[in-house]
Design goal:
Strand content: 15-25%
Helix content: 40-55%
Distance between the termini: 19 Å
Largest sheet: 5 strands, parallel
CATH topology: Rossmann fold
Order of helices and strands: EHHEHHEHHEHEEE
Radius of gyration: 14 Å
Structural class: alpha/beta
CATH superfamily: 5'-nuclease
């Protein structure tokens, strides 16, 4: 497995919002990590919405991507088809669109390590219907 980490919304929000309860935990993960951190446009969009309309908070999110700290991977037609299948399969968890894009990306890139505060969802999701995710922090 490559040294890559999937970035979920909750961890992204906690990184940029010092008032978040898990901010220090997430900063510590980022400080120790030395591989690539990848995410999706859906996660970015959800994060920008959750940090609120203030430009300064949104700018911090965008700067992570602009300076190359995180790699934004756009969805393909194939990944969107997979997202639809995943959202149907996990509708009772439930799985939102951003989570589904991360699971599809994990399958596509062979990444089973996810930087998330959503232990409930990512403990239930499986890569390629069998392999569990490993959660950080």
């Amino acid at each position: 497995m490559a040294n890559e980490l999937l970035l979920d919304t909750g961890a992204f929000v906690a990184l940029v919002d010092r008032s978040e309860r898990r901010h220090a935990d997430c900063v510590a993960v980022l400080d120790r990590w030395n591989g690539a951190i990848v995410t999706t446009e859906a996660v970015l969009t959800e994060t920008l919405y959750l940090v609120g309309p203030r430009w300064q908070a949104q700018k911090v999110c965008l700067e992570f991507l602009l300076r190359g700290a995180f790699l934004l991977v756009p969805s393909s037609q194939a990944s969107l088809k997979r997202v639809s299948v995943l959202m149907e399969k996990y509708r009772n968890v439930p799985m939102d669109y951003a989570d589904a894009t991360l699971v599809a990306l994990g399958e596509e890139l062979g990444i089973d390590l996810v930087f998330t505060l959503d232990g409930r969802g990512f403990s239930a999701y499986r890569l390629n219907q069998r392999r569990p995710f490993r959660l950080v922090p």
